[in-house]
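Minutes, methods subgroup
Present: GH (chair), OT, SY

1. OT presented the first of two proteins processed in the latest run. Sequence and structure tokens recorded below as shown on screen.
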Amino acid sequence: SVAEALRIEKWRLKGAMERKNAFLIDDFSPPYILFRKELRHVETGTSVFLGDSIEVIRGFPRIRRAFYLEPMLQKHFKDNVVIEEKMNGYNVRAALVDGKFVAITRGGFVCPYTTSKLEEDENLLKFLKYNQELVVCGEVVGMENPYVAHEYLEAERFGFFCFDLRYKSTNKALPIEERNSLLEKYQLKSVRLLGTYRKGEIDSIFEIVRELGREGREGVVIKDPEMKLSPVKYTPSETNTSDLAYAFRYPYEYGRDFFFSRIIREGYQAAEWEEGEEELEARAMRLGKSILFPMVRSIRKVMDGDVLTEDFRVRVNSEEKIKALLIFLRRQGINFILEDSGIDLDEHIYLIKRLRNSTTDKIKSYLSGRFE
């Protein structure tokens, strides 16, 4: 049974289903139960496939964030730490289920677009064929996907970079050395390894983070080489302010925690890096611009009669694939307009313009005289 496969009591599973914290998706083969919320040791985003046998793909564990880095490193890690690049895309778990390839998003959904793209990677399919007990966890990046458009020279359109190999049954991650040798053997791309350091080499780690900020890269994930301790993420100022600039284009779509946490990070980092007046001035300018400029642009757009949209480009080689993606997005309650952008190299390009109605409507109401 599903409860046995998850090692939880039947009444707990029943309660989660009744509260819609777990629900059945039956228009996929094999059908699967998706856990929208954590249930005891079962992670958010866990998918339980009900095929010939029950297969569990555990949700990807949440990676905690360091605000003040040095004491955290001393407290959390034993000795050496591995520094890897954190890429700006979306989290995907690739696996074989009942012999069928699936690409699962952080939320636990099988994404038809990502699945069809990654299915073209023969090395990935070969790896999973010979390592069916493993899940390949990685980041999809590039400018052609329906979730996060961010430019990377190493993957301009669409790329998948592995950062973990985990066992289906336990969610336990392979040690980094073992992971790397497997990825090398099957010629799978991985996130950039930036070095192994003693946890006390804080200045070297800070310099890596500063350099990534200058390059417009997202940040680092700090790992225990044996993967027995949970990883920690840390980002440069440029990432925090870039996130804010993006979110303040649509300020009513994001929770206040999203904004507040990123502003707070700036304070702790500036203090730990012992920034002087000039550096603080530059940080304050960057922070202020990231909040004000995009918001004013959005208000002016609505003043001009425009509707605010978040635009994503996708590329498909069949009509069935775009139809499957549209059904998938609508099922998740996403409102959008689809624009045909023509054909390139025998593939069809579409623009998915996600409607940001909350922000458009709220700005309109204030512009028409609403007060609070």
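2. SY then presented the second protein from the same run.
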Amino acid sequence: MTAKPTQPSRGRLIGFLALMVLVGLNLRPALSSLSPLLNRIQADTGLSPLGIGALTTLPVLCLGLFAPLAPWLAKRLGPERALSLALLLLAGALLLRANSLTPLLFLGTLGVGAAIGIAGSLLPALVKRELPKGADLMTGVYTMALCLGGALGAGLGIPLADWLGDWHLSLASWTLLAVAALVAWRLGMPHPKPPAPGSLPKAPRVRLWRHGLAWQVTALMGSQSSLAYIVFGWLPVLLQRRGLSEGEAGWLLAGSVMVQLISALGAPWLARLHRDQRPAMLVVLGLTTAGFVMLLQAPLSQRWLGAILLGLGQGGAFSLALTMIVLRSGDSRLAGKLSGMAQGFGYTLAAMGPLVIGLLLQLGAGLTTVTAVLVGIAGFAAVFACLAGRNRRLEFDAEGTVITRRYERRR
């Protein structure tokens, strides 16, 4: 029988919360700081539009390819040391990426995606273990930190390049934040008491791919993440095609991501009031769709309203998708497995979004076509939101077999 999880002390909770915020701040600037600088990078390196598209797609693809390694690393190193390794890899890759040599630029970008994929997949299980009764709200706080980091990366990319005199230094500067998170995590990471030898039975093998609910959560994660990474990778470029300067396009992206802070924290709180998360998911996906249409099709005088709607929608969508991993898992072990699957397969699916947009632009597609593709992806996400948002959860039965059942949440 598994011991009943206990809530941490107030001091431990505050410390863990601070660490989650600091780690979360690191998982988006590496992505969002790149897109405002794409024109400068292209001019300096001579990359083709397709090459630039590959540069924005590669880290998202690596999120998916490397996220499944997280449960394997956690099992062998422990989740705490595995996260330390991911932060170390992130710091090194950020330095390597700040290079005009194309092979090193792409190698560093690959490392950035791998590090973020591993770290992002480890965190839901850590949150579920450290705060089992409030994991969904903790996920909202962590997602809020992700959004803040994304806003900082998007908004400071151009100013840092101008201030430091070089896009290389602008990209490399985010290494400092990664090193700070690594040091703080090593000093303050939780140290759970190991179980006594022989006190726990051998854990049964978990095969989540046999369960439709796991695939529904995965498809939801992938489709809404695809929209997010299209925004990080291409929104400034698309806005510049509408006649905005690179600086204003970057600030519009930063403003939209900053607005995500509101819905990233509020959406999980609203969702936990009900056992059915479908209405909340449909609302945030509707806001996302409206934001895209206003930014890319409406008069430019409405661009900031569009950015606000997009931010409210995407912040809520990502936060709820992560919360689904927690709510659809009966314990921290299942949360870790579902996180690896949802973020592994999901981010691999998400990588197709930036690639498709890059190909469309390479082929001369206009903003109307791009907008139609974005609306289609949002519709795809809505279908799986209706499936994953139902009152279901993956649990172990008395024989240790994973089953899907309805559950009652305690208020």
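Chair's summary of item 2: The CA atoms of residues 7 and 133 lie 7 Å apart.
Next meeting: continue with the remaining queue.
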